[in-house]
Amino acid sequence: MYLLYDIVVFAAAMVLAPWYLVRGLFRGARRQGYRERLGFIPPARLAPLHGRPVIWIHAVSVGESRAALPLVREIRRAYPGMAILMTTVTETGRNICRGFKEIDLTLYFPLDLSFAVGRVLDLVRPQLTVIVETELWPNFIRGCRRRNIPVVLANGRVSDRSFPRYRRVRKLLRPVLAQISRCCMQSDTDAERLRELGAPADRVLVTGNVKFDLDPAGRPAAEPAALRREFGIAEAVPVWVAGSTHEGEEAQLIEVFRRLVAAGGKLLLILVPRHPHRCRQVGDLLDTAGLEWRRRTAANPRRLESGEVLLVDTVGEMLSCYAMATAVFVGGSLVPIGGHNVLEAALVQKPVLFGPHMHNFRDIAALTTAAQGFGRVADAAELEETLQRLLQNGEMRYNAGRHGWEMLQKHAGASRRTLAEISRLLPPP
Questions:
Q1: From the candidates 64, 133, 250, 384, which is the catalytic residue?
Q2: 413-428: pLDDT as tens digits
Q3: Interior/surface letters 57-67, b for 16+ CB within 10 angstroms, e for the rest
Q4: What's the total number of domains in the chain?
Q5: Same domain for 202 and 343?
Q6: Domain with 387 in it
Q7: Residue 135 is among the residues annotated as catalytic for this protein
Q8: Has residue 204 been placed in a domain?
Q9: Model confidence over 165-192: pLDDT tens digits?
């Protein structure tokens, strides 16, 4: 089975390699990323790990990396003498991880070929690996097992969309799941689904969702007024932040904004595409709509006013944007992406809205809607209507932000529970 899997992965890599190379050139990706993915890492790159036992944490992209941070902090506090290696698949995920002071080294995750993962495992020699959410890489998990390296699935979930697909190949998944030492799942539903897919029942437990463990200390230190000055936004104008947006959403959001302003509303839009390289495409949409706009990285002393748009082309400033918001919309939800984390808005006590496609965050979406009394909107028309009410009702905004924060605190603690399971597989600190 593994030989066949190697052949399929290698063939897919050969087919996709030219496309990734061209895309990397346009995005300015470093060549070393391709070498890292094949397991060729210069010894100097691994210097931060030398002389210390290593915990390897893998998070595929931006969302998983941010979600992993509370757990990373718990591990760092419990095991200060260990080095933490973080791997990601995407460039944006790696950039996010580089900003985490708790992490000693960030690399690209190797291509899941037996020789590539084996080479990196032998170079790093981790005492334990942690896979965030449900990244089931057969060769990586097998390589860890053959080297007696425990594997922990942290913040595990089996989404509504992926479960039917997994069920069709569960005979192939069962031996992979059998090699995982602990499966720490977000909910009872996720745990039951993983057991049905073949995970040993005694290794599957519910620890909760680490995304609720956002650290209050991670909120922006600057006050909203100071952030507005830094971002070049007028002080008095209400701000709507649309974060983590995707293709197909921006056009709808721009039209909602244009209609609200045309109806006489005072409002400024901060638009944060999920992938910064799409800012040129989004800028074209803003030009077509006839709106005045500016990139976050553009040098311009004039402050943006009502009816204008700030297009954020940077990474790592989402919480600062949310802190300035009058209301927040989280993208990936008006189009069938599956949504993104709405709890960052709750951390800064802001009312948050999202579309109908939240299958990757089904429990969080339901809890947020129950706490606020609103949240999920069916389409752009309902989004416009709800935003209109929020902009006109300060008490509604305040209560939503407060209740969202209380909900966040009520469901915290998953990182500590996951750390307890990790500690059972490691020597005492």
A1: 64
A2: 999 999 999 999 998 8
A3: bbbbbbbbbbb
A4: 2
A5: no
A6: 220-410
A7: no
A8: yes
A9: 999 999 999 999 999 999 999 999 999 9
